[in-house]
Amino acid sequence: MQQVGLSERETTKSIHSQVLMVFMLPIAGAIVNLLFALPAIRQIMIQLSFYNQRAMVIIAGAITLALLALYLVIYGLTTRIYHQIVEKR
Q1: Exposure check for the chain: N or C terminus, fewer CB within 10 A?
Q2: Residue 51: phi, psi to the nearest 5?
Q3: If DSSP states are collapsed to H, E and C, what string results for 4-39?
């Protein structure tokens, strides 16, 4: 990218925006999927006499935060490796 006239700052910004879009779209999709699935999960848990709204919200939040943390770690690694690849060429 720097060979076509972009500064190092512009290259880094471009890499971050490209990789961020690739990583955040699946997270957004997973959160939307979870929001639509919660009523069905609630009904199943009521049928099994195992429904606890507080526990369900805590678990859903914890899973969402764990997924986000995992994606951010992988995002950081991917961005660093992508930047190294771009610098070599």
Answers
A1: C
A2: -85, 130
A3: HCCCHHHHHHHHHHHHHHHHHHHHHHHHHHHHHHHH
Instruction: Please state the pTM of the whole predicted model.
Output: 0.67
Task: Name the token pair of 22.
Answer: 């690739």
pLDDT (tens, 9 = 90+) of the chain, 89 residues, equals: 555 566 777 777 777 787 778 878 888 898 899 899 989 998 998 998 888 889 888 998 999 899 889 988 988 888 888 878 877 66
7 — phi, psi (to 5°)?
-75, 170
Q: 38: which residues sit within 8 A by CB, 6+ positions away?
A: 56, 60
- Report the C-alpha gap between 57 and 17 in whole angstroms: 31
